[in-house]
Design goal:
With about 130 residues, the chain is mainly α. It is built from three helices and no strands.
């Protein structure tokens, strides 16, 4: 025998299979870590943008409301206040509905990792999908 013991036969095959499974698991863990980092960065960017947008849009809308009420103070002050209130309520309702739609339609975190695990499981089971 030219080969050292354990490199051929059942023990060698088991070691090769174990090494392959560990390499596969390592790749999947790397993918999960990358997706976690990307998701964290994306959520940070979204939070900062939402905060900036809310701050400046809120200030702008407040100033617009003030301008409209001042313009119509002598003639139709109640109508101006009611109109601004309805406009703000409609914008708030639209923003809430849009926010819920984005949350509902977003892919779940780690979807690529889960897809890869499913493909790996199908490959191990012998399913050619």
């Amino acid at each position: 025998m030219d080969r050292p013991p354990g490199e051929s036969g059942p023990l060698g095959s088991a070691r090769a299979l174990g090494a392959s499974l560990l390499a596969l698991l390592g790749t999947r863990v790397e993918l999960a870590a990358i997706e976690l980092k990307e998701e964290t960065e994306r959520r940070k960017r979204l939070a900062v943008l939402a905060l900036v947008a809310a701050l400046f849009l809120g200030a702008g809308l407040l100033l617009l409301a003030f301008l409209l009420v001042v313009l119509f103070w002598d003639t139709h002050r109640l109508a101006a206040i009611a109109g601004v209130t309805l406009l703000y309520s409609a914008i708030g309702a639209w923003a809430l509905l849009r926010f819920r739609a984005i949350l509902r339609d977003s892919p779940p975190p780690f979807s690529a990792t889960l897809d890869e695990f499913k493909r790996d499981l199908d490959m191990v089971r012998g399913n050619d999908a």
